[in-house]
Design goal:
The protein contains 8 helices and 12 strands. It is an alpha/beta fold and 228 residues long.
């Protein structure tokens, strides 16, 4: 996912960009409101999320958020030291999709980025009007929870299907192990890591496509869409 980081402090931006890059994000750094607005032309310029610090040198961050919302529907997460409810409400009313207060936990920030991008992703991305994800020879029928490869149905367990469907709805996007465990198993990472590895191995074997799910070392997994 491409992410626009709007932050005037170069040291903060460098550290955060490094963390985001390790988690699969392609980060572009804008140091001012005007630079951010230019980067979003035309129509969001392919960015999946804007991480907007409100303390900018040239314009008020709230003003920048309003201008961004007039130009594009790209999700905006405001980042600020202002923790009062009135400030949060003001930001959300201007069109922000979420609001993170400094100092924040990096894991929480990553979770919020993924949550916002899921909520705002077009419903038809990779999915036909019939609710079927088509990834080359692999068809995933979301309404019936049925998976087929080259027309042959593959029997999956409930968790195997949930795992595959999660990855397949955003091909190429790296999902952190903690995020997968939270969304598929509805629990924390502790003690569940081995279960995830077993399910990934089982999916690769059942689908007979070991390269379909790629391990991103130290981070998690992503689905590599096969050629049609």
């Amino acid at each position: 996912m491409r992410l626009l980081l709007v932050e005037d402090d170069n040291h903060v931006a460098a550290a955060l960009s490094a963390v985001l890059a390790r988690h699969g994000f392609d980060v572009t750094h804008a140091r001012s409101g005007e630079e951010a607005l230019q980067a979003l032309v035309p129509e969001g310029n392919g960015f999946g999320v804007v991480l907007l610090d409100l303390g900018l040198p040239d314009q008020d961050g709230y003003e920048v958020c309003g201008k961004i919302r007039k130009r594009t529907s790209t999700p905006v997460i405001m980042v600020t030291a202002r923790s009062d409810v009135r400030s949060r409400i003001h930001g959300l009313n201007l069109g922000a999709d979420d609001y993170v207060v400094k100092p924040y936990d990096t894991g929480e920030l990553l979770a919020r980025i993924h949550a916002v991008s899921r909520r705002t992703a077009p419903e038809d991305t990779g999915t036909g009007g019939d609710g079927v994800l088509r990834l080359g020879a692999v068809h995933i029928e979301l309404p019936t929870r049925q998976v087929s490869v080259d027309g042959s149905v593959v029997q999956l367990t409930r968790k195997e299907f949930d795992l595959l469907a999660l990855l397949a709805q955003r091909p190429g996007v790296v999902f952190r192990r903690e995020q997968i465990i939270s969304e598929v198993w509805r629990t924390s990472w502790e003690g569940t890591g081995r279960t995830l590895e077993v399910h990934v191995a089982s999916l690769r074997a059942k689908l007979r496509m070991p390269a379909l799910i790629e391990t991103v070392r130290g981070v998690g997994y992503r689905l590599v869409a096969p050629a049609s």
